Amino acid sequence: MGTTKLGAALTGFAAFVVFTIAFAVTRGDLGAGLQAGAMIGIGVLVAHWFAATPRRHPVKQCGAPTPQP
After folding, report:
1. Residues 8, 6: Cα–Cα separation, whole Å
2. How far apart are CA 33 and CA 40, in angstroms?
């Protein structure tokens, strides 16, 4: 099952919402929650976006046959 860029965007947004609420509730400061949520959400988005981007040269797995283009 492959990762899609839409899934990356949804996961990044979900991380933003969850961490914003978590920090805002635990620290009682919405500004800190928004900052933490934005940082973590963007990090998750970027990581998943690059994971969804196809590689130019497929990586050979141990013991697996070499993929043919």
Report:
1. 5
2. 11
Q: Could you give phi then psi for residue 59, rounded to 5 degrees?
A: -90, 130
Task: Give 49-66 pLDDT, tens digit per residue.
Answer: 888 877 777 666 676 666
3-class DSSP assignment, residue 69: coil
pTM of this structure: 0.70
30 φ/ψ angles, rounded to the nearest 5 degrees = -70, -35
Across 30-55, b (16+ Cβ under 10 Å) vs e yields eeebeebbeebbeebbeebbeeeeee
Q: Which residues contact 58 (CB under 8 A, 6 or more apart)?
A: 67, 69
